[in-house]
Specification:
It contains ten helices and 16 strands. It has about 400 residues and is of the alpha/beta class. The strands form four sheets. It has an eight-stranded mixed beta sheet, sandwiched between helices. A four-stranded antiparallel beta sheet has the order 10-12-8-13, covered by helices on one side.
């Protein structure tokens, strides 16, 4: 059997170089030509069947291993965020207003590492491996686009199992893995509300139909609805992140607008909140003689791990790195992931990897912060785990 931990540590410096090169040139959204080119260059010569996306700058690579009819899919996202980097690093972003603030550059390097390790140990595989390099996770539904273009059947048949790793800069100790069976991350949708009234002079509000206090009441009412209509043990989170109205203190505007993110942890509550939030906002507007235009924008479903695969990940991580390197995830988090679309179609598990640069990880800046930093010394561990999961899942077919 291959010793993936030793072999991964031998290519750690290569992974660091790849990660830092990607970090310096972050790209946002679905069109990531420079990142795609770096991935293609790193995979060149490995003997993989490589294809690129039609509607996005994705890379799909297939490692063939004999005549097996089994396939495992390994995934990494590769896009950055519209954040101006404030971290003081020698390899900081050279692109104004863009930053790898969520660690996707590490994800890419780890998956490239896994590809190199698995090609080297091809004889260990009892099936095919698909490497999914995905743009557009940060709100662009890159996974959905890649699924439409056939990534799940890239080997010629639908994948039987899937795994992915996400680094975190501040949630768990460095080098530690964590996951859980069932719901791991929330769904993410948005509600966009425009309250339509009638403008007028601020000194005579009775002659107008002021949309601002009505919209403000909706903001509070949405929170009240959650606490009084939804079970606290199946949480719903609504956060209003935008509120726009008016041009001057003494002018009542025609409209007031706000947008909110909606997070749920079950498909049932996801469907229910979409209906009830719309009803509530429209009812409040109607009660004051105004009109509310309400639109729900669906984004990502709940990220749900297959129970057996999540337990398998924990067991493999513990055996590979020692029991102290794996911890059970105590509860789901309200972040969201479009990898949820892959897990809806293929049984598998997502796993977090601690990459804090501080000895006390709670003092580190969180993912998405302009000062977020990630300890790239953990990358060989991620590459080793992905490789071990691929080999063992094909052999054992969890």
């Amino acid at each position: 059997m291959a010793n993936f931990l030793t072999e991964a540590s031998e290519i750690q410096n290569d992974l660091v170089a790849i990660r830092r090169h990607i970090h310096q040139e972050p790209e946002i959204g679905l069109d990531l030509p420079k990142t795609q080119a770096k991935i293609l260059a790193a995979l060149e010569g490995l003997g993989l069947e490589v294809s690129t996306g039609k509607s996005l700058s994705s890379v799909t690579a297939v490692l063939r291993a004999g005549d097996s009819k089994k396939t495992v899919l390994l995934r990494a996202d590769m896009d950055a965020l519209p954040v101006a980097e404030l971290a003081d690093l020698p390899y900081k972003s050279q692109i104004d207003g863009a930053m790898h603030a969520c660690g996707h550059d590490l994800h890419v390097a780890m998956l490239i590492g896994a590809a190199k390790l698995l090609v080297k140990n091809k004889s260990q595989l009892s099936g095919d491996v698909v490497f999914m390099f995905q743009p557009g996770e940060e709100g662009f539904d890159g996974a959905g686009h890649m699924i439409k273009e056939g990534v799940l059947t890239a080997s010629g048949r639908k994948a039987d199992a899937t795994y992915g790793i996400h680094v975190t800069s501040s949630s768990i100790p460095t080098g530690t893995f964590t996951t859980k069976p069932g719901t791991m991350m929330a769904s993410a949708d948005e509600i966009h509300v425009t309250v339509v009234g009638m403008g007028g002079h601020g000194s005579q509000p009775h002659t107008a139909k002021d949309p601002i206090p009505v919209a403000a009441e909706m903001v509070g009412a949405l929170q009240l609805m959650i606490t009084r209509s939804f079970d606290a043990f199946d949480p719903v989170v609504i956060t209003v992140g935008q509120f726009h109205a008016g041009t001057k203190a003494n002018i009542i505007p025609d409209t007031a607008e706000f947008q909110a993110t909606i997070r749920t942890f079950s498909p049932e509550n996801r469907a229910r909140i979409q209906v009830e939030a719309v009803r509530l906002c429209k009812s409040i507007a109607e009660g004051y003689g105004l009109k509310a235009e309400v639109k729900v924008v669906e984004q990502y479903p709940v990220t749900v791990n297959n129970d057996a695969h999540a337990q398998f990940v924990g067991r493999v991580a513990g055996e590979l790195f020692g029991n102290e390197a794996y911890m059970d995830m105590p509860h789901a988090i309200a972040g969201a992931e479009d990898y949820s679309r892959v897990l809806e179609a293929v049984p598998g598990s997502y796993v977090f990897l601690g990459a804090s640069v501080d000895q006390d990880f709670t003092k580190s800046e969180a993912n998405h912060s302009p000062r977020a930093m990630f300890d790239d010394s953990v990358m060989y561990r991620g590459a080793a785990l992905l490789s071990e999961l691929a080999v063992r899942s094909l052999n054992e077919m969890v």
